[in-house]
Design goal:
CATH architecture of the largest domain in chain A: 2-Layer Sandwich
Number of helices of chain A: 13
Radius of gyration of chain A: 20 Å
Helix content of chain A: 25-40%
Oligomer: homotetramer
CATH class of the largest domain in chain A: Alpha Beta
CATH topology of the largest domain in chain A: Dihydrodipicolinate Reductase, domain 2
Distance between the termini of chain A: 34 Å
Number of domains of chain A: 2
Chain lengths: 335, 335, 335, 335
């Protein structure tokens, strides 16, 4: 039984709280939020104590691990403090919006050698995971191309967009990680194009884009395409296509049920895709937590490490340089 | 090169005329229709002579075969005359609305021993045919259940319904044949229920039903279900499901193209199914003709013989007796 | 918060225990099983007391409701005892294998007027439920035909088959209920055919069949087909098709993820369907419990009442008479 | 009735010969091929004369139009000669491998003002065409992204590859045209990455690549991705995705029939996609010819003009420059 304390009781934090509480191998030891009513609510729901401060948690020697689901600007600091306190860490992505800060954080925590897992939940989606396994089993031979479609169902609020670090850091970051996971090799060249098409007015206000296409190549010549949009009206569009020498794998979108309608003017109509990540990746969040708990219990390295967080961010920074220069940008692997 | 004369230049006759004219191994030798303008039109389109009488054709020794696409009440007579004239015969279903007349026709033509094929086109549909081949290849092990869905896109005109012989003879006859083809065994017990649901008023006028379910069992215990409707607003609904000990085969509906639409209230919407048999079974009609030409050229028995026409009709008559009595009706195999 | 005691801690009982424990509006008050280790295990998992006897539970005035998931032969007795104790009841299907016993039970409990819900979980499946709602919203106009496909993934153990009441009582009972739910009208005529095709040897030993087709008609002429098999190797096959005057609805099978594979010899291959009812109807069991809890809390009649249990069983008995006589059997509505 | 002469009786020429011969509004006036036996064969099949020289055809005043299906290096010359002779022209793509030669050809033929259509058949595919129509009808609002997947079923012979002009000129040229058709706007920035992954050895010999990804942007910010491979083992992979402000359209792959297989280890398996362009775009070739005949008869401009051929080639040249430089390349619209 792993005792886990939760930092951050917002939307994603509450999801993690419930997953920890229902996990047969974990116990929700503490919850904390800078806005205490959020912490109180989670605590009451799951019957656990509310921490008054970060230190309450870090000083509790019974706590094995922390789950960091606070706002992005606090991630690196909490990682450092938790590592110093010897806690295993599961931290929501991104580690930080600045690659420099991430690399500094890496140095800071290195001596403490605690298990750390970054919350790239999509790697744990049953469908994407089955694609990866089929790939690794050789079912499509050598991988040639990866196509990632990733579109949110609706524009996030302006307040979020203003501090998110931009489309390529807050949204594409997941795709950069998934691309690395599927490619099994580092991209060495990144090219990006982007536009403000969904809501040019809001984009102008927050100095961002809402639509993007990214193209990457690995040293061995594998090609990868990513497309993003802040708004797909038909639901959260999350597809992975792996094309190889002996076949293709498609991890397709999911619906919450399988009703199909037929009428005089149409056939096979179903409901739109699941609304957003809480529903679409519900199983992925559970599996991500399971993997973390197992890594901590077995003292094995987590499946998605600090390096993965840094490397995805390095790709996002390269993509931004590409946008600025109109050229493909070489990526220096972080090591 | 097989010289084929066509009796009947209505909708289905015109389709056959074009298929004969485009077939590299056949020549459209004559066309005939009691309503001469129809024959003239077909003749002009395909550059062939118009016969003034049935005998013009039957007396022409250059004619190898006849294709009978006239009204049902003339089928048996034309079969008999053509057999006496030594012509190979491809006759549209049904042979006749009366099983007695069919059996009499069988006796009449027996001495002439001409190749005769009945126009059960569905056996030649690429999708249904692939299902049959997969079944015969053992891909689903032993066959346990056959489910046939067969619904027309819209009610036929009252004039047709009044003389069609009724739903089970004009429409289900195709399903009875397809059931026999797929089961590979004769049904020995037939049960039917039917209703006037699509258009009770017209049904009352023509003393018929427009919706039916039929259930059959073979001697070895295989089970078969058929459902019919005179009107499926989403298009011609033609599905075959074969369920066996090691798998299932579904020959599904077809669309003329593969556009799928996604919007705020739906996903995966496509156009309705192909409208009706001329489109849905276009390839089947071509393949049916190919098979007939090949049988005539190779002097091998046609794949769908006179017996098949008789046995499908026997099932229709059994189904009508079941409707009348509310009991399952035993079928005496025709031999 | 409704306090619910659980009778029976077998496979389905454990599922219900977890659902009650996780339900925000319910509390698992007691668990009981004649085999106490099963009860102990469930109790430990969910932190609730183990009852030593049925009376421990029925005498506890804090208990609002009981969930009966014991063996079928104890259902009617527990319903009667629970009703006398004034408890709301959620009872797994079937109420009993004998319609006479069911009708007697109905009389016994009538005076106590407790809320009682029968565990026809399929009515609560999101996909089937959406079909029913679309039907009720008029999206396919008037309902003409209902087609139910219901096949288990593998033969149950012989010990189960020997006491199950037979295919039509233990398996088709769900389809009889679902047919009534979808038809919105009572079937008045039932016809059945059945065979031993999956495992004739075991069928002979337990004097049962393993494959069946049933056909029913309502007073207004609606037609319904059901097909069953004890073994569909490709997974639990659960489909509902509703055909109406202006469209069709298909509640299709579900997979646990959406990976599709393409290779030199195939396209679009996915994993088999979800294995069995615990997975396929996981959401349905949760929704069923929610509906029960809400009915108890709101003092409204449960959505699936005792009558529904009796009527489904009456259809099963009619189907058995049809098998025995080879005729369609008229059903006298239970009232 | 339009009299059409055919230059070139290879694989694609024979397809066009049959389409002309079967077209009710056209007549196959002549066939010509530098390798006369090919012309003889086509002539015999369709009953038309064989020309001994190009001039036989161009001097025949009865000839309304020519269809140029010869090798690429003869296209521009035949276009010029045919234009001078006043013939309407349907020319297979590409006009030439060199944009300079194409622009020179444009100047040469300008004075003769004959109707000229370039053989970008994909625009006439029923499924892609329906996507375009739905887009133009506003069904997905404003277009934001276009995703084109275009993969051949197998590597072309080395002899072809050596003179084809390279992957981006012989294969992607179709996608450049389709992109322009769908975008409704000229791409102004092109970026390409490519690799030799399918068969590096052959690629080295012919100095080409076999796998490519291209990304383009229009002046208004629309984004377009194209991916290509010389070999998709599961069949000719031809997909169009249009993503817009109120929905998405997918023109998906097609199979020649709709059989789906289910077994213990899989569900929904169908045959691979149609093998190659002759099958996949059979209807498109017929529709393309229809459109050309109608344009000639009605004296309206063909739907795909000489300019379209030039502009697609300009995009290919830009893509090659991008490959060479690693930067996005600005496209100067040809005008």
């Amino acid at each position: 039984m792993i005792k886990i304390a939760l930092f951050g009781c917002g939307r994603i934090g509450r999801l993690h709280a419930a997953n920890i509480a229902h996990n047969p191998n974990a116990e929700l030891a503490w919850v904390y939020d800078v806005y205490q009513p959020s912490a109180d609510e989670a605590a009451q729901l799951h019957g656990c104590p509310v921490a008054q401060s970060v230190d309450d948690i870090l000083n509790d020697r019974a706590v094995d691990a922390v789950l960091i689901a606070t706002s992005t600007d606090t991630h690196a600091g909490l990682i450092e403090a938790s590592a110093k306190a010897g806690k295993a860490i599961l931290c929501e992505k991104p580690i930080d919006l600045s690659l420099d800060r991430v690399l500094q954080c890496a140095k800071t925590i290195a001596p403490y050698n605690v298990p750390i897992q970054i919350g790239f939940n999509r790697r744990f989606d049953p469908s994407h995971r089955a694609a990866k396994q089929a790939l690794d089993n050789g079912q499509i031979g050598d991988l040639h191309q990866v196509i990632l479609t990733s579109r949110d169902p609706q524009m996030a609020p302006k307040s979020y967009l203003a501090t998110s670090g931009g489309l390529l850091r807050d949204m594409t970051i997941h795709d950069f990680d998934l691309a690395r996971f599927m490619l099994g090799e580092e991209p060495v060249e990144v090219f990006a194009q982007a536009s403000a098409l969904v809501n040019p007015a809001v984009c102008a206000e927050v100095d961002d884009v809402d639509s993007a296409m990214i193209q990457m190549k690995t040293a061995s010549g594998k090609l990868c395409h990513i497309n993003n949009s802040r708004q797909a009206v038909y639901g959260y569009d999350q597809r992975v296509e792996l094309f190889g020498s002996t076949g293709m794998l498609i991890s397709d979108n999911q619906r919450s049920h399988e009703l199909k309608q037929f009428a005089a003017d149409q056939a096979g109509k179903s409901e739109p895709f699941q609304f957003f990540f809480l529903e679409r990746y519900a199983k992925a969040f559970v599996a991500e937590l399971d993997a973390f708990i197992k890594a901590v219990a077995d003292k094995t390295p987590p499946q998605v490490g600090f390096d993965d967080g840094a490397k995805a961010l390095a790709l996002a920074e390269a993509a931004y340089r590409s946008l600025a220069t109109g050229t493909a940008v070489s990526v220096n692997p972080v090591d």
